[in-house]
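Input (structure):
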């Protein structure tokens, strides 16, 4: 069995509408998680959708 390799991460900066950021931040706190986890889950869900052409 092959040992698991650490997941490589990159740091990025996003500009979001303040109300969207605030709502996501509050929801993350309500769910006892952080905004990074919420955004990662949202991007993963988005990438599972079929491509629009």
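Output (sequence):
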């Amino acid at each position: 069995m092959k040992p698991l390799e650490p997941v490589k991460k990159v740091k990025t900066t996003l500009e979001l509408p303040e109300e969207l950021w605030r709502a996501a931040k509050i929801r993350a706190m309500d769910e006892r998680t952080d905004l990074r986890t919420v955004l990662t889950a949202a991007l993963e869900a988005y990438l599972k959708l079929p491509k629009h052409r």
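Notes: Residues 18-48 form one domain. The chain has two helices and no strands.
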